[in-house]
Structure formats: C-alpha cells, structure tokens
Amino acid sequence: MVAVALSSPPPPLLRLPPHAPSLMSPLPLPRLRPLRLGRRHLSSLAAVAAAVRQDSATWTQAPLTLIAPASRDASLFHVSIDVSDAPDLAAAHTAPGQYLQLRLPAAPKPVFLAIASPPALAAARGEFEFLVKRVAGSTTDLLCGLRRGEVVELSAVMGRGFEVERISPPEAFPTVLIFATGSGISPIRSLIESGINANKRSDVRLYYGVRNLQRMAYQDRFKDWESTGVKLVPVLSRPDDRWKGEQGYVQAAFSRAKQVLNASSTGAVLCGHKQMTEDVTTVLVADGVPKDKILKNF
Description:
about 25% strand, Fruit protein pKIWI502
C-alpha cells in the first residue's frame, strides 16, 4: 500500500456558539391554521363524490351485435347492443319511448338515444336496438364507425316513456294520431311493435316526415305495421319528381286531411323536431283534443 502524504493540515473543526441549535435537532415547524370549509364548499365536494360514485355504478359495458345502414343514403344506422349480461338494465326497459345515454372512450361526451326495440325484445333476448343518426364529428359518427363485438358503455334507462294508459282502453280512444320526423321514428317503432291495439281502434294514423325516400328508415317494416291496423302516411319535404304522396311537413299534411270525428276521444303521440311537436300540439288543441291525451317521450 502506498501512503499519500497530505500537503497541508486538515481544516479545524467547526465550533458552534453555545446558544446555536444542534444540527441534529429538528427545526421548528410553522404553525398551520386549521382549514375551514364553508357549507357551499362542503356541498360541492359531496356532489363531486356522489357523481363519481354514481358514474361508476350506472355505466354498463356491453358489446355491439349489429352496425348497419338503416337508410339508403347511410345517414341513419341500425345499432344493436347485447345487454344479456346486465339483466337489471334490460329489465328497466318497460315502456316504449324510454331512452339512455351511450358513451365511447374516444368521444368527448355521451349521446342520448331512444330505444327503438320493444321492451319484449330486451326481456326475451337481452338486446337493445337503436336507430342512430350519423352526424359528422360527433359521438354518433364514431359509434357508426365501430364493428360488431366492440364494447360501448350504457347508462341506466331513463324516462317514463309514452304513457299509453292515458289513451286507453282502445274503445274509449278509437282515434290515435302519431307524428314522427327523422330519427324520431325510433321510439315510434317501439310503440307500434309493443302493441298499441291499433286493430281494436277505428283510426290509427302515422304521419312520418323525412326529406326524401333515401332518408326514410324502416321501410321494410311498413307492411307489418299496416297489418296491425296502422295507416302509414309518408310525408316528404324535398321529394323528387316521381313522388306522388304527401309533400311538405307533417303538420301541414295533417291539417289538409284532418278527419277527426270526435276530438274528446282522440289521442296523439309525437316524437321528432321541436317545431313539429309544437305546431302539431297547437293544431290538435285548437281542434279540441285534450292536451293530456297528447303523449311525448319525456
């Protein structure tokens, strides 16, 4: 071993004055005032916590079983979702006109969708069917671009649906007027296929308005609907020259037809554009139809 000689002596030890604190003793900490939250802050925190609990409890993952165009121009899509592993969710669909929210991981916000299938389908097969309007850049655009087997998330079923008991029994309300525009036909399909007892009523009419036949969904179901006693009145706002049926808006088509024999025994069901529902409600009430007999899917 080689010894190394120091060229200078080591520095003297540091000596602290008697009143200085020891380097090993803990430094005194500043006194902290207790945090006092006002009632508003506490309620806000409670609301956030409740929202987190609710969010984790109410969203259900479910796989897609069908994604397919529902109109000739592919502006509408059929979407089916398997909820057989969520029996409580399936059982919550009890009335036509109910709806829920659907969300995707890549989408910034969920979308509200009316359930198009009748409640019996969820009970028998554990499946929800929807009619989805594809809007570029939206959640529905992403949804319609998915494939069978991919997973989405569904909220709890919402709304009372159409309170059909308010226009029952059929013999007391022989006339039922149904109005739908665009994708608003979705919950109307659920209503018709749930059984509105159209064959026990003398006059059940469906005024269904869209821009043209290329945007009209469920054309393959029209004969089945008519076989149950529903008279279908398609109304096109921008038809081509070959169209010989009703033109314009559904409220105008109804005003031209009228033929309401007894307003007090007439019921109505509305779903679609806000302006349409407001205009039709005004016309019906003016004709004497009781306002509480005009059903909407709230």
